Amino acid sequence: QVATVTEYGAFIKIPGCRKQGLVHKTHMSSCRVDKPSEIVDVGDKVWVKLIRKEMKDDKLKLSLSMKVVNQGTGKDLDPNNVSLDQDERKKRMFRDYTSQKITLEAVLNTVCKKCGCKGHFAKECFVQPGGTKYSLIPEEEEEEAAAAGYERDKKTSVADDSSKKRKK
Protein backbone atom coordinates (compact mmCIF):
# COMPACT_ATOMS: atom_id res chain seq x y z
CA GLN A 1 0.00 0.00 0.00
CA VAL A 2 1.30 3.49 -0.88
CA ALA A 3 2.19 5.37 2.33
CA THR A 4 3.52 8.66 0.93
CA VAL A 5 4.24 10.15 -2.48
CA THR A 6 7.22 12.47 -2.96
CA GLU A 7 8.72 14.26 -5.96
CA TYR A 8 11.28 11.46 -6.42
CA GLY A 9 9.08 8.39 -5.82
CA ALA A 10 6.65 6.69 -3.47
CA PHE A 11 7.11 4.94 -0.12
CA ILE A 12 5.30 1.62 0.08
CA LYS A 13 4.12 -0.16 3.26
CA ILE A 14 4.98 -3.84 3.02
CA PRO A 15 2.43 -6.20 4.67
CA GLY A 16 3.89 -8.14 7.61
CA CYS A 17 6.87 -5.77 7.88
CA ARG A 18 7.34 -2.55 9.83
CA LYS A 19 9.71 -1.14 7.19
CA GLN A 20 8.69 0.90 4.17
CA GLY A 21 10.42 0.63 0.81
CA LEU A 22 10.97 3.27 -1.84
CA VAL A 23 9.83 2.91 -5.43
CA HIS A 24 11.95 5.51 -7.22
CA LYS A 25 10.22 7.28 -10.11
CA THR A 26 12.55 5.52 -12.55
CA HIS A 27 11.17 2.17 -11.33
CA MET A 28 7.48 3.09 -11.47
CA SER A 29 6.96 2.52 -15.17
CA SER A 30 8.87 1.57 -18.28
CA CYS A 31 7.95 5.04 -19.57
CA ARG A 32 9.45 8.25 -18.21
CA VAL A 33 7.72 9.49 -15.05
CA ASP A 34 8.10 13.19 -14.20
CA LYS A 35 5.60 13.32 -11.34
CA PRO A 36 5.04 10.15 -9.29
CA SER A 37 1.74 11.63 -8.06
CA GLU A 38 0.38 11.10 -11.60
CA ILE A 39 1.02 7.34 -11.29
CA VAL A 40 0.04 6.54 -7.66
CA ASP A 41 -1.88 8.15 -4.80
CA VAL A 42 -1.67 7.59 -1.05
CA GLY A 43 -3.65 4.48 -0.12
CA ASP A 44 -3.33 2.76 -3.56
CA LYS A 45 -2.44 -0.92 -3.49
CA VAL A 46 0.35 -1.81 -5.92
CA TRP A 47 2.45 -4.88 -6.70
CA VAL A 48 6.19 -4.40 -6.12
CA LYS A 49 9.39 -6.39 -6.31
CA LEU A 50 12.31 -6.02 -3.90
CA ILE A 51 15.31 -5.13 -6.06
CA ARG A 52 17.90 -4.07 -3.45
CA LYS A 53 18.52 -4.18 0.29
CA GLU A 54 21.15 -1.77 1.58
CA MET A 55 22.50 -1.02 5.03
CA LYS A 56 23.33 2.67 5.36
CA ASP A 57 24.12 4.35 8.69
CA ASP A 58 22.77 1.29 10.58
CA LYS A 59 19.45 1.64 8.76
CA LEU A 60 18.01 -0.87 6.33
CA LYS A 61 16.93 0.71 3.03
CA LEU A 62 14.66 -1.24 0.72
CA SER A 63 14.49 -0.42 -2.99
CA LEU A 64 11.36 -1.59 -4.78
CA SER A 65 10.23 -1.69 -8.40
CA MET A 66 6.77 -1.56 -9.95
CA LYS A 67 7.82 -1.73 -13.60
CA VAL A 68 9.03 -5.35 -13.43
CA VAL A 69 5.73 -6.58 -11.93
CA ASN A 70 2.40 -6.93 -13.73
CA GLN A 71 0.13 -4.56 -11.79
CA GLY A 72 -2.97 -6.60 -12.64
CA THR A 73 -1.84 -10.06 -11.56
CA GLY A 74 1.31 -9.47 -9.48
CA LYS A 75 3.38 -11.73 -11.79
CA ASP A 76 7.12 -11.06 -11.94
CA LEU A 77 7.89 -9.84 -15.48
CA ASP A 78 11.67 -10.02 -14.96
CA PRO A 79 12.35 -13.22 -12.95
CA ASN A 80 16.06 -13.32 -13.87
CA ASN A 81 16.62 -9.57 -13.28
CA VAL A 82 17.77 -9.04 -16.88
CA SER A 83 16.10 -5.65 -17.28
CA LEU A 84 17.45 -4.45 -13.91
CA ASP A 85 20.98 -5.47 -14.92
CA GLN A 86 20.62 -3.57 -18.20
CA ASP A 87 19.46 -0.44 -16.35
CA GLU A 88 22.47 -0.65 -14.03
CA ARG A 89 24.84 -1.08 -16.98
CA LYS A 90 23.37 1.97 -18.72
CA LYS A 91 24.03 4.09 -15.63
CA ARG A 92 27.62 2.84 -15.27
CA MET A 93 28.60 3.03 -18.95
CA PHE A 94 27.82 6.73 -19.42
CA ARG A 95 30.92 8.87 -19.63
CA ASP A 96 31.16 12.54 -20.39
CA TYR A 97 33.50 13.09 -23.34
CA THR A 98 32.58 16.75 -23.95
CA SER A 99 35.86 18.05 -22.50
CA GLN A 100 37.97 16.00 -24.91
CA LYS A 101 38.62 17.61 -28.26
CA ILE A 102 38.72 15.63 -31.47
CA THR A 103 41.50 16.54 -33.88
CA LEU A 104 41.67 15.31 -37.44
CA GLU A 105 45.10 15.20 -39.00
CA ALA A 106 44.52 13.01 -42.04
CA VAL A 107 44.96 14.08 -45.65
CA LEU A 108 43.95 11.88 -48.53
CA ASN A 109 46.93 10.92 -50.66
CA THR A 110 44.97 10.90 -53.91
CA VAL A 111 44.37 12.96 -57.02
CA CYS A 112 40.85 13.79 -58.25
CA LYS A 113 40.08 12.34 -61.69
CA LYS A 114 37.60 15.14 -62.34
CA CYS A 115 39.63 18.30 -61.65
CA GLY A 116 43.18 16.96 -61.14
CA CYS A 117 43.62 18.46 -57.66
CA LYS A 118 45.08 16.57 -54.70
CA GLY A 119 43.28 15.57 -51.51
CA HIS A 120 39.81 14.44 -52.57
CA PHE A 121 37.95 11.90 -54.70
CA ALA A 122 36.00 12.63 -57.88
CA LYS A 123 32.67 11.89 -56.18
CA GLU A 124 33.49 14.56 -53.55
CA CYS A 125 34.58 17.11 -56.18
CA PHE A 126 32.36 20.17 -56.51
CA VAL A 127 34.12 21.73 -59.51
CA GLN A 128 31.85 22.32 -62.50
CA PRO A 129 33.30 21.66 -65.98
CA GLY A 130 35.29 24.76 -66.91
CA GLY A 131 34.88 26.14 -63.36
CA THR A 132 37.39 27.19 -60.72
CA LYS A 133 39.79 24.52 -59.46
CA TYR A 134 40.56 24.22 -55.76
CA SER A 135 43.38 22.32 -54.13
CA LEU A 136 44.83 21.88 -50.65
CA ILE A 137 47.06 24.58 -49.23
CA PRO A 138 50.63 23.37 -49.77
CA GLU A 139 52.99 22.95 -46.84
CA GLU A 140 55.92 25.41 -46.44
CA GLU A 141 58.50 23.34 -48.36
CA GLU A 142 56.08 22.65 -51.19
CA GLU A 143 55.05 26.31 -51.19
CA GLU A 144 58.61 27.52 -51.86
CA ALA A 145 59.07 25.00 -54.67
CA ALA A 146 55.68 25.93 -56.14
CA ALA A 147 56.52 29.66 -55.98
CA ALA A 148 59.81 29.06 -57.84
CA GLY A 149 57.98 26.93 -60.43
CA TYR A 150 55.27 29.59 -60.81
CA GLU A 151 57.84 32.31 -61.51
CA ARG A 152 59.46 30.05 -64.15
CA ASP A 153 56.06 29.29 -65.73
CA LYS A 154 55.17 32.99 -65.73
CA LYS A 155 58.34 33.94 -67.59
CA THR A 156 57.85 31.25 -70.22
CA SER A 157 54.18 32.19 -70.71
CA VAL A 158 55.12 35.87 -71.21
CA ALA A 159 57.72 34.77 -73.78
CA ASP A 160 55.11 32.56 -75.49
CA ASP A 161 52.63 35.47 -75.61
CA SER A 162 55.19 37.83 -77.18
CA SER A 163 56.21 35.24 -79.79
CA LYS A 164 52.53 34.70 -80.70
CA LYS A 165 52.09 38.44 -81.24
CA ARG A 166 55.12 38.55 -83.53
CA LYS A 167 53.87 35.68 -85.64
CA LYS A 168 50.61 37.51 -86.39
Automatic annotation (TrEMBL):
Which PROSITE patterns does the UniProt entry name for this protein? S1, ZF_CCHC
Report the record's Gene Ontology biological process terms.
RNA stabilization
List residues of the S1 motif domain.
1-67
UniProt keyword list:
Acetylation, Metal-binding, Nucleus, Phosphoprotein, Ribonucleoprotein, Zinc, Zinc-finger
Q: Which Pfam family, giving just one, matches this sequence?
A: S1
- Outline the segment boundaries, as ranges, of region: Disordered: 143-168
Q: Subcellular localization, per the record?
A: Nucleus, Nucleolus
- What are the GO MF terms of this UniProt record? RNA binding; zinc ion binding
Gene Ontology cellular component annotations, sorted alphabetically: nucleolus; ribonucleoprotein complex
Question: Which ranges are annotated Basic and acidic residues under compositional bias?
Answer: 150-168
Recorded hits in InterPro entries, A to Z, give: NA-bd_OB-fold, S1_domain, Znf_CCHC
Report the residue ranges that make up the CCHC-type domain in this protein. Answer: 112-125
Q: How does it assemble?
A: Interacts with PNN. Associates with the 60S ribosomal subunit.
Name of the protein in question: Zinc finger CCHC domain-containing protein 17
Which organism's genome codes for this protein?
Answer: Aptenodytes forsteri
